[in-house]
Amino acid sequence: MASPPLQQSSFLLASLKADYLNKPFLQRCQDLVKVIDDYPAKELHLLFTWLVESVFGSLDGSIVGWNVRFVQARTNEYNTIVEFLDPSGPMMKLVYKLHAEEYKYDFPISYLPGPVRASIQEGVLPDCPLFHKLQFPPSGLLSLSLSLNPFEYYMFYFAASLIVQRSYLPGQHFSPSDSAYFVLVDSYLKYFLPTEGNVPPSLVPVVRGTVSPPPPRSPIVPFTGYGVHHTSLLKRHISHQPSMNADPAAQEIWRSETILQVFVEMWLHHYSLEMYQKMQCPQVKVTKRCNLLLKHTALPQCCRIDFHCESMISKA
Question: CA 113: distance to chain centroid?
């Protein structure tokens, strides 16, 4: 008699956690690649949040993970990490497997930048449509979270891991532009925001199409927004709501919209709540987004990522 999927997933997760403590890094990654290839989404679902945390560390800073921000090209782990997290690599294959089955994952708003978090807690939703995917738990606003599809969750976690305060060993020679994280940012921008061609490479046959956001919920407090229509950071707006007759290109471009929104919201909103709310007004929004598009398309060439982030933001 076959074991129920939940028991199989629990056993698989326990086995991977044991390997994490006992096996060399390269062998662990090879095992993960095999697991992602061989197991169905229903069993990989329970591994996903653990794996993301194992790679990037916990957002409270207590777990270091693979130390992606500080791994340099001269280290033995560098190539393995970059290949595993590459836009066409095993981690993204896992993301797309889960995406095809429409799984959702909670990202606590407590890990959003201060002004974004404060705005939501005051009952005013920011303009970015990703922040309209709120879950309203019985415990109240302090435990609010975003209900995200796997791609959105991964990108939020990837971006958030940059601004978590971590340290590296004293005396360790460290160049931000030579780190695995910087290389991955460059790869993600080139892959999901291509300057040549119209859209990122197709997900087919791994993914059926775009995933709809969770159905609207009745909030426990009245939430207001800055406007009725959500403007896009891209020239061609892509709705997060799927359509049976949707343009096939739209099924791919939503990832470009998502990654750009996540990077902008997580990396560039580190100032007062008052300033953040002022920047939601339509007049400021146009100039702001033009500047942000220029910043992000030029980021790999002209910026050096500051791993405390504030210094990069202050130069914006």
Answer: 14
Residue in the structure block whose two tokens are 């340290």: 167
Predicted local distance difference test score (pLDDT) of residue 11: 86
Q: How far is C-alpha 2 from the geometric centre of its chain's CA atoms?
A: 35
- Residue 314 is predicted with a pLDDT of 38
Integer Cα distance of 105 and 77 in angstroms: 28
Q: Look at the block and give the residue holding tokens 């400021």.
A: 284
- pLDDT recorded at residue 103: 96
How close are the terminal C-alpha atoms of the chain, in Å?
A: 60
Supply φ then ψ for residue 10, to 5 degrees.
-65, -40
Q: Does 153 or 179 have the greater pLDDT score?
A: 153
Residue with the larger pLDDT of the pair 205 and 20: 20
* Distance of alpha carbon 176 from alpha carbon 70, whole angstroms: 7
Kindly report the pTM of this predicted structure.
0.76
295 and 152 in contact (C-beta within 8 Å)? no
Q: Which amino acid is at 214?
A: P
pLDDT of 177: 76
| Lowest-pLDDT choice from 27-31, 151-155, 294-298 | 294-298
